[in-house]
């Protein structure tokens, strides 16, 4: 898999560490890692089986300029945000935030692993929530269940999964946490126009700031 | 002092305090001291260490003519201030820590506990009768001037500190200027908050303070060509470049002869020699000095350096033995500092430090963080080769985090080669060469002569000691020190190694070290002036003397003395230099004809105690085990076992010895002959991780006692009857167990066949 968005790499003259310092949230902390490995040792997710690279390795790869490998890695997406590494890091690196920062940057560049479950759910959730300012649980479930491993629409698979989960769904309905009628449009926040322009402005501000750094 | 002249009067004092009275039959002990101990005066007291008890003893000394005192109370390590009678011979019977505290308070144990106590009373009486009061060494000399060899950071610090304390200093530097390696640095690793930037070396300030100090005499371009004498009365010949020699009287010596960098020419695989752009750390300091804050230029073509790679552990921590085995400890901080030279001049310079483990003593972690903040890249990797390629250099290394072979390009490569001590010749090699040079084979002799000359040329102090011209080496060619407990001490009294000649260290550590060495040197000259021993028996007035008419000139004492205190006179008799002596007694233990003794510690003082112990016959089923315990570690451990009430066998009798090295085999033979069932020798750990206060004492003692097997064989005894055991001061719980195990083993073996003869 090649990085199709190499414009940034060119701009930073292949200095990937500098690129992340400017473009990823908390990226300016990466250089402070001292490779002790306490983060990896503290991670409750048992990264050996799931993670491509533990955090300190990611930081080392950043310094070694291995841009493509870092940005396409699943590591940042495996983080459960438990903050154990963040608390334990003897150098006080905000590791959890750095992970999210790099993940977000990879996502923006469009090179993050496409169907990585965390990224997939994150994307569905954000799109769902950003539409109206409220999460539509029914549509969220539909978007999540009715897709196969390749990300294609899958009616049979979706129905199967829905049936598997029906006792949970009934429980949620009874408790008033899930309204089936939301399938036909649900609740939303009052100022729809204001919400959208707010999101747009926020995105704009961030992009201007990062573009300035890259200049 | 007059004890030998005037009439002797022996007195024993038996304390019944600390439950001694309740646990023991004190009236019988008084009888034992009178009848068996043959004491002319015996007194009992309920609280002997109280002011009243001490006054009672003092009154007897003043008015009753008592000259020798056996105090039977607590351990000799307890209440030393109360029982301090400096002009009287004193022995101590250890009834408290050595008897009642290590025995159960039961009716059943009462009889054997009492027998134990009676023996300790007899032993204390016998010991004191064989003692005289030490009178102090009279061959003292009076020089309180310190000689400091080496004018680097360590030497200058020692000189300034000693001068500040009011002592005169002679400072000898072989080059034309003070400052050593530090003077060649552009800047130094920071010593002050916030530890973020390199700072001024401070050398100029020290040099000017030395120049202004009336207490310090400096010889530049000078070496020490001969050192004779002993603490308090050394005569040092200082020869300057022109060839003229001055003799200075000095009391103590601080050797601060420093280090050289490990020769990078031995590292051709790292590109040294192949390209002028591969430099060692001193090479980079020179470049930085030339640049003086501007961008650093590389040597080959004067191009501004845009990328630099620092190779840590170059020729260090090498397990193959080809290069240095050790870590020099300071080079990581230096590389951090040198990387900052580049970043501070131009933040765009790529600086990469390739390390396996960053070791940053002191406040180096803050400095390291500051370097990371400045953008210095630290990569964990092992460099295999550095090759010159076209315009620059290629550094091939294995990245240890990413586990792959990779490379980096650089304009300049800096090798952190570490330090090699300037510690004089290896005395073992020199002595071997000297022996070979006495060979009759002309070829061997010629080769050995060259070797001797080569090694002698490396000498720093040129001592005229029998055991060689310098301080012995310890590990990796560093001048030795008692690493665990007394880092400044060497095996030459009043000669202290300071700074990186002793172990690798940075400037902060060297200053601390040099200050400590100056304090120790001052203590040494003061003690020498009073005729007292230096560390570890500081203040001891006793010293060894030899009855030369009995001497067979076997040289064992002159060879074995761990401190080189004994030379040989023209007639090849041992010549004692009392103020070089540490009073360990290794010479006394070594002497096969037993002519060496101290006034208060001799073959007799211990031998008399062995003889004083009552050995029951084989039918009584009461074995006897003699323990000769090192007074520095084993004896305190036994005392502490008592304090913690860890019981041990009632059949042991403990005699403290100054060092296992002082144990004379005659004690062993005598004890076995008189029917002892077993002997335990308790000495400190020896070898590379030694814990012996006298460095080699326990090792020499063990070697000597390893030959005792023949004696046992000759007597028809099992080899297990003598047990050598290493004891550390912390073995408080395990030691009683070991004693009990040995007692059980002896019981299983049955009584010694020597009983009753």
Detailed description of the structure:
The complex is a heterodimer of chains A (215) and B (757). Chain A is mainly α and 215 residues long. Chain A has 14 helices and no strands. Chain A folds into 2 domains: 107 residues, Fumarate Reductase Iron-sulfur Protein, Chain B, domain 2, CATH 1.10.1060; 88 residues, no CATH class. Chain B is α/β, with parallel strands linked by helices and 757 residues long. Chain B has 21 helices and 29 strands. In chain B, helix 4 runs antiparallel to helix 16 and helix 5 packs across helix 7. Chain B is elongated and about 95 Å long.
- How many domains of chain A, as an integer? 2
Derived from helix and strand composition plus strand pairing, the structural class of chain B reads alpha/beta
How large is the count of helical segments of chain B? 21
Mean of residue pLDDT values of chain A: 90
* SS strand fraction of chain A: under 5%
Low-pLDDT residue intervals, each spanning 5 or more residues of chain B: 1-5
Give the termini separation of chain B: 40 Å
Runs of chain A in which pLDDT lies below 50 for 5 or more consecutive residues are none
Strand order of the largest sheet of chain B: 13-19-14-15-16-17-18
